[in-house]
Amino acid sequence: MSEPTITCPKCKSEIRLTESLAAPLLEQTRVEFQQRLSAKDLEITRREEAVAKSTAELEQQRSAIEIVERFTEMNEDLDRERKAMTKMWAKREQQIQAVVTSTAGLYGDLQGIAGKAMIEIEALEMPLLADERGS
């Protein structure tokens, strides 16, 4: 087996790599490789930390968005309830007005029939002007 050789880039002559000549080159190569490997490991660790940080921030953002979505849903539910209650109140108000109007009409009819013998119901009486009462 022949010994390994390298060619000198300047003089183009072949140089035999003996153990004493190759050892420092191998050591230098090993040190450079270890440095590059350490740098790559450090870069990978930094990237993993950045990804973990970004993931945590995204999780917080998603939580905040979910909270906003819940409040939006609650607000929409409240609006629907408000509309439904307003509709029901308007219906009740019309019913009460119809009953009051009917009662007032019945009271007027009874007053026409009974005259002064009928008991006055103050809520159904028409308010008189202040100067007509003699005040």
Explain this structure to me?
The protein has 135 residues and is mainly alpha-helical. The chain has one domain (22-118). 74% of the residues lie in helices and 4% in strands. It has a two-stranded antiparallel sheet. The protein starts with a strand and ends with a helix.
Structural features:
135 residues; 4% strand; single chain; two-stranded antiparallel sheet; mainly alpha
| Computed CA radius of gyration, to the nearest angstrom | 50 Å
SSE order in H/E notation? Answer: EEHH
Category from helices, strands and their pairing: mainly alpha
Main sheet specs: 2 strands, antiparallel
Short description:
The protein has helices at residues 19-114, 130-133; strands at residues 5-7, 14-16.
